[in-house]
From TrEMBL:
InterPro entries named among the record's database cross-references: Glyco_trans_2-like, Glycosyltransferase_2, Nucleotide-diphossugar_trans
Keyword Nucleus: no
Taxonomic classification: Bacteria, Pseudomonadati, Pseudomonadota, Alphaproteobacteria, Parvularculales
Pfam families: Glycos_transf_2 (PF00535)
Protein name as it appears in the record: Glycosyltransferase family 2 protein
Domain Glycosyltransferase 2-like, residue spans: 25-188
Swiss-Prot/TrEMBL keywords: Cell membrane, Glycosyltransferase, Lipopolysaccharide biosynthesis, Membrane, Transferase, Transmembrane, Transmembrane helix
Keyword DNA-binding: no
Species the sequence originates in: Hyphococcus lacteus
């Protein structure tokens, strides 16, 4: 893929963590989303107007004007941080880039295409905080899409994939394809990284002994850009990834509660 013209700044992500710690870091990966990037940032900022937050957009080597649009949005929303991949690395890597750079203890993530409604983020965050108060080992509040605004073929493929995954992984999730989630940064960083891991976060989180709560969320039709996946392409990698996650679950061993002796 051709590199964009202009200066490229190398970012030491872990060195960028500052002393000031927001309550919530919001991460959205983007690839060629110039048409909707500014609106998504605006919606996130409006939804979190009463929560101290930062917005981290990870541009996964876009070839359109996504970065230009985001730089203009940063003049209006100083809480916006723009991280740019030199090479396209996929959604899971973009999410990981954002998590590594995040300053908050809790992370909200959503897809960068605008189909996830940022208005649900505060509710997911509050649900997670309530569950953490009851059970400190709860680590994630995950959205499950209601009234999906996708093509019939895409919805059929998603239902089939979710059914197979539930039977084989028993992760309790009815819709792992929903990008809208709030989770503990520390819990995420315990997970093994691999491409497409974002589709298996509930199973991986539970593998580490954490609890998850699920909440219904709305879904919106795509207004800008184009989908980065096809049903065939998604199916080809899903089978391989599913076998890998099943292996990871089978090889997990829990030590139970760990205590330090005085």
């Amino acid at each position: 893929m051709t590199r964009r013209a202009g200066s490229v700044k190398s970012i030491g992500l872990m060195d960028q963590r500052e002393n000031q710690q927001p309550t919530l870091s919001v991460i959205a990966p983007m690839l060629n989303e110039a048409g909707g990037a500014a609106l998504l940032v605006e919606e996130i900022a409006a939804a979190l107007s009463e929560i101290d937050h930062e917005i981290i957009i990870v541009d996964d080597a876009s070839t359109d004007e996504t970065r230009t649009v985001l730089r203009a949005a940063r003049k209006v929303y100083p809480q916006l941080r723009i991280l740019c991949h030199e090479h396209n690395a996929g959604q899971s890597r973009a999410i990981r880039t954002g998590v590594l750079a995040a300053r908050a203890e809790f992370i909200a993530m959503l897809d960068g295409d605008g189909q996830n409604d940022p208005a649900h983020i505060p509710s997911l965050y509050r649900v997670l905080m309530d569950e953490v108060a009851k059970s400190p080992m709860t680590a994630m509040a995950a959205g499950e899409r209601q009234g999906r605004q996708d093509s019939r073929a895409k919805k059929w493929a998603s239902r089939a994939a979710n059914s197979i995954r539930q039977k084989l992984l028993d992760d309790g999730a009815a819709d792992t394809g929903c990008g809208l989630k709030v989770f503990r940064r520390e819990a995420y960083l315990r997970l093994p990284y691999f491409d497409h891991m974002h589709r298996y976060l509930p199973a991986l989180i539970r593998r580490e002994g954490y609890g998850i709560v699920f909440m219904p969320v709305s879904h919106r039709a795509r207004a800008h850009g184009a989908s980065k996946y096809t049903n065939i392409g998604r199916a080809l990698v899903a089978f391989r990834d599913l076998i890998g996650v099943m292996w990871l679950r089978a090889r997990a061993k829990s030590p139970g509660k760990t205590t330090e002796q005085p």
